[in-house]
Structures are given as C-alpha cells and as structure tokens.
Here is the input.
Amino acid sequence: MDSNTQSIKKLYYSIGEVSKATELKQYVLRYWETEFKQLSPSKNKAGNRTYRQKDIDTIHRIKDLLYRQKFTIEGARKMLSNVDTPESKTIEEQPQHTSEANVEILIKIRDELKSLLENINS
Here is the structure.
C-alpha cells in the first residue's frame, strides 16, 4: 500500500482520494466498477462514491493483475473470482503455491520419462 493511503486513516474515502492513492484516473475507477463485480463502492446521500479499505485493496489487486501481470480484463476477472477470500490469500501468494505444486508434478513426469527411456534403451 502506498504512503498516501496509509496517511489517511478514515472509514470512507472519496473517489479523488482513492484516485491519488492508487495513481489511477477517476474514470478508470468508474470503468472498473462496471467490469469487476468485486468492486462496488457504496454511494452517500449526495450520490458520491464512498470507498472502504476493502475496495481500495481490490483496486490494488486489479491494478496489479492488469498492469504488472498483464492480464486481460476477462483474465483478471477470472483470477479475482478464483481467489477464495481476499483476506486469506493475496494474488502474490497464489502463483507461488501453484508453482510449488507444478514443480512436484513436473518432477514426477521427469522421473516417469527417465524410466521409460531406460526401458527403451535396454
């Protein structure tokens, strides 16, 4: 999280504050609301968006998926829906867990291929 978000300790944040904290334009945040069901800030009586910390965390996850990991919007949407609970796993933890499982599978495949190659050669 960036220092702007940490310095502002509030229950609700305006779209302008979130825009500055996430370094995203306000129209991008409004567009993402239409594309990601996980991002749905409430609105106050005046109709202004009021973001909570969980909304800001979701925005950071979406930004990471789209800009750093180069997912398409559809791919990012699928990744967000695959995460069991946002609090229990971060996006960075998920690929590491998956890659450890993949390494084990690859080791088994390699061992089986070595065994087959030895049988062919003998």
